[in-house]
Specification:
- The complex is a heterodimer of chains A (309) and B (161).
- By secondary structure, chain A is mostly helical.
- Chain A contains 15 helices and 3 strands.
- Chain A is 63% helix and 5% strand.
- In chain A, strands 1-3-2 form a 3-stranded mixed sheet, with helices on both faces.
- Chain A is globular.
- Chain B is α+β, with helices and mostly antiparallel strands and 161 residues long.
- A 5-stranded antiparallel sheet of chain B has the order 6-5-4-1-7, with no helix packed on it. In chain B, strands 2-3 form a two-stranded antiparallel sheet.
- The chains are: A mainly alpha (309), B alpha+beta (161).
- Chains A and B meet through helix 1, helix 2, helix 4, helix 5 and strand 1 of A and helix 1, strand 8, helix 2, strand 9 and helix 3 of B.
């Protein structure tokens, strides 16, 4: 019996369809470890990897997309994006207003598709008269005083925040990273652990990190996200608002006010977002126009928190 | 050989079924820095324990889109957005390259844009991380969020009781 055992195991694996993946694992691991430990040349390692690709098409999926960025990586990218924004603009240090937008924003986040996110949602106010807002990957959201000043009630700030949370939920920031950069970064990440020479990889990773931040901040601060991302964020904002109980018509009210205040040649929302009139048209199908009853607590907390805005 | 045939068949069956069986066992990984295990499927459920990024849990029950899991530190309810079906590898190694190739799934590698990279990045960039840390300190408890929603008479209060 004993002498048949290895044969039996091989047959069993053949039957269970494991053979392709097993061979692939062995080849891929061999290539990675061999190259990392210097026992085979990079060329040989490449040849081995090519061989593995022939064995199974699935290895093609090593090429990466924004979905392969881990929540932890998303968080550190977001911190760097927020640090970049806060190097250009100054933080407005008003604890009453900041506490209020965090109460509001973190409450709204419970009704998004990603209520739990690696480091949680955190909101800050920027000391600028511009009409602008930034959602960094990973849940850090920054609003300018100029934008909050435009809001006439809590539901309108909720509309602005829900739009930014939707950008985080849909990972629009990560999608701004160039695909080639992401593939390169994630391949380096995966191979990093197999290598003893982590130092070299750390420098390479840091460069890729820095370039990824530039991709995101360029979109956020200069070119803007694609129009489709903005329309998608508006539509999700309307849904999130309906879920928590704010009238989504406040989003339209806010957009109309922006339309009248924005300078078409300005460097803020006018530059990075589609025209408010187009956004209103796009979001109209998601509208829930039912007004909500006045509430004294809601009115009072809004007035107190925004009195110095 | 005749005597060994039944044994051979059993072994064959076990080895054929085993890989399929393990695919159906719902093991998930925690994808947030930390999250509580709760005693009921709600953000207001009492915390009975805590799980950390990368830890694996087994799903044992579902209710209203919440998941009851078995973790090393005990059982409890977790919101699904805190979990991923992908494996989170805290220290990526060669075997992950193999698994990635074999399963077509990216094993979420722990090496990468992490505190080490941030430290390296900050050496040259001189960016304003101080204010980022300041903003991160604003943390509103779920109980306070619930009070905020309830006191403002928002209909969503009924959803997170």
């Amino acid at each position: 019996m004993k002498k048949h055992l290895p044969l039996l195991i091989i047959i069993a694996f053949l039957v269970s369809g494991c053979v392709a993946s097993t061979a692939e694992i062995l080849t891929q691991v061999g290539a990675a470890v061999g190259q990392a430990t210097g026992t085979i040349s990079p060329d040989s390692a490449d040849a081995l990897r090519k061989n593995a690709r022939v064995i199974g098409e699935s290895s093609e999926k090593i090429a990466s997309s924004f979905e392969d960025v881990t929540p932890q990586q998303e968080y550190y990218l977001g911190r760097a994006v927020a640090a970049t924004v806060l190097s250009k603009y100054k933080l407005w240090q008003n604890s009453e207003a900041t506490e209020y937008i965090n109460r509001l924003g973190q409450s709204i986040s419970l009704f998004s598709a990603r209520p739990e996110i690696y480091g949680g949602y955190h909101l800050g106010l920027i000391n600028s008269d511009e009409i602008n807002a930034f959602a960094a990957p990973g849940g850090m959201i920054l609003l300018t005083r100029g934008l909050v000043r435009l809001c006439e009630n809590e539901a309108e700030i909720a509309a602005v925040i829900a739009h930014e949370i939707a950008h985080v939920e849909k990972k629009h920031g990560l999608r701004a990273i160039k695909k080639s950069r992401l593939t390169s970064a994630l391949t380096t990440l995966t191979l990093a652990g197999a290598s003893e020479a982590v130092g070299g990889n750390l420098q390479k990773l840091t460069n890729l990190f820095s370039e990824s931040i530039s991709d995101i901040t360029n979109s956020l601060m200069n070119s803007g996200y694609s129009r489709d991302f903005e329309y998608e964020a508006d539509q999700r904002a309307a849904e999130i608002m309906a879920a928590i109980g704010y009238p989504s018509s406040s989003l339209v009210a806010m957009l109309k006010r922006m339309d009248s205040k924005l300078d078409p040649d300005g460097f803020d929302f006018a530059k990075t977002h589609p025209a408010p009139s187009k956004r209103i048209k796009s979001v109209s199908s998601k509208m829930n126009d039912e007004p909500i009853p006045e509430n004294e607590v809601r009115t009072r907390r809004f007035v107190i928190a925004t009195r110095d805005i | 050989m005749k005597k060994t045939m039944p044994f051979f068949l059993i072994l064959l069956t076990v080895l054929t079924i085993f890989p399929a069986w393990t695919c159906f066992a719902e093991t998930m990984s925690v994808q947030v820095k930390k999250t509580p295990l709760r005693n009921s499927p709600s953000f207001l459920g009492k915390m009975t324990g805590e799980v950390l990024y990368g830890q694996e849990v087994k799903v044992i029950e579902k209710n209203n889109s919440w998941l009851k899991v078995k973790a090393k530190t005990g059982d409890g309810w977790i919101h699904p957005s805190a979990l991923t079906s992908k494996k989170i590898v805290l220290q990526a190694g060669a075997e992950d390259v193999g698994r990635t190739a074999a399963t077509g799934e990216m094993a979420l590698a722990g090496k990468g844009f992490n505190p080490e990279v941030e430290k390296e990045f900050r050496k040259d960039s001189k960016l304003n991380y101080k204010d980022v840390d300041k903003i991160e300190r604003y943390e509103i408890s779920n109980q306070d969020r619930f009070s905020f929603i309830r006191d403002g008479e928002l209909s969503g209060a009924g959803e997170i009781k």
